[in-house]
Amino acid sequence: MFYVINAVCFVIKADQNRLTDRQQYIFDAIQSLFGEDIKENIVLLFTHSDGFPPKNALTAVKEAKVKCAVDEKNQPIYFLFDNRQSETLDEEYQMKQDHSWDLSYKGMAGIFNFLDMNKQARLKTTQNVLLKRQRFEENISEQKAHVQTMEQKQHELKQAQDDLEKHKENKNFEDTVEVSYRVKVDIDPAVAKQAMCCTVCEENCHYPGCWWVKNISWCHVFKNDHCTVCPKKCHFSKHVKEDKIYVTQKKSEKRINEDLKKEYDDNYEKSLSNVNKLNEELQELNNKKIKLVMEAFNCVEGLKTLALNTDSLFTLKHIDFLIEKMKEIKEPEKAEELENIKKRAESNQARHAAQHLCFI
Ligand SMILES: [Zn+2]
Ligand SMILES: [Zn+2]
Ligand SMILES: [Zn+2]
């Protein structure tokens, strides 16, 4: 089912040189609202008419690019009124008032005739315009919410990347430890000449005071051929007698702290997978953004073909936002198309302003 409409009447003063900004806005809005199917049902009503052709007003309408029904000579269809018939005037004005009455009567008859002759407009296209416009508005607010979601996600990603960088910098899990080791040194001759030491345990098993020279096993630290001093109780054959003893020395050594390393590896894994996850999510959000921007662009294109006012006011309201988004998704040609719509609208506004200056 489609709604129908008989006529849309634009009321303008017959002596107007230009439309007021308010009129211009209202006419633009109406023409943005309706589809091409209403054009033949738009008529102009000129008030305050003196009965002569409303040349100025017609020029103003033409300048303002108001779309309306035209006659066979391609001239706008209009009706004249001078609504002063209800005023009480002295007799000397009677003729003028009669004329005013006749004029308005003729105008009214003209409208009725127009309504009889003209077919009703089925607002199929207009309905489509309204639906597209509604979708366009929804799309824009969806896009604005989407911008916030993406900013939040980008913020999260930045943090996750920072975390990952910090991990890379903190790669030091080496600990410096002090280790002791045994080393052979010359004996202090003031203490003794020789010592009996275990080569396995690196222990000075008999020092000082070991005097056995012939057979080491004769030393009294051995019992049943095994040493009673060194920790492993080694066989006497593992022992030597010489002018050196073992002493303990200390040195610093770097060792990998396995716990730290594991913690580092785990955290690194976690941060890396977080960054990857966020990157994927951001990619999906970006795909959705491209989809939304393209949909908005198609709405604009659709409205351009459907709506009576090709550069719909509703489009213009959001044009800067959409141009910016179009550039962001790397569609320079489409961004330029939108720029052109904006430029056209701006030059129209400049034209109106210029006219305004000329006539004040
Ligand atoms: Zn000994
Ligand atoms: Zn020993
Ligand atoms: Zn030993």
Average predicted confidence as pLDDT: 85
Alpha-carbon Rg, integer:
50 Å
Task: Give the N-to-C terminal Cα separation.
Answer: 49 Å
Order of helices and strands: EEHEHEHEHEEEEEEEHHHH
Unique bound compounds: zinc ion
Topology:
Blueprint: E1 4-5, E2 8-13, H1 21-33, E3 42-47, H2 55-63, E4 78-80, H3 94-117, E5 121-122, H4 124-169, E6 174-186, E7 195-198, E8 203-206, E9 222-223, E10 226-227, E11 239-242, E12 244-256, H5 258-306, H6 313-317, H7 319-328, H8 332-359
Structure description:
- It contains 8 helices and 12 strands.
- The strands form 5 sheets. Strands 2-3-4 form a 3-stranded parallel beta sheet. A 3-stranded antiparallel beta sheet has the order 8-7-11, with no helix packed on it.
- The protein starts with a strand and ends with a helix.
- It folds into 3 domains: 4-122; 131-172 and 258-344, no CATH class; 174-256, no CATH class.
- The protein is α+β, with helices and mostly antiparallel strands and 360 residues long.
- It has helices spanning 21-33, 55-63, 94-117, 124-169, 258-306, 313-317, 319-328, 332-359, and strands at 4-5, 8-13, 42-47, 78-80, 121-122, 174-186, 195-198, 203-206, 222-223, 226-227, 239-242, 244-256.
- 51% of the residues lie in helices and 17% in strands.
- It is rod-shaped and about 165 Å long.
- Residues 356-360 have low confidence and may be disordered.
- The chain binds zinc ion (3 copies).
- One zinc ion is lined by residues 198, 203, 205, 227, 229-230, 234, 239.
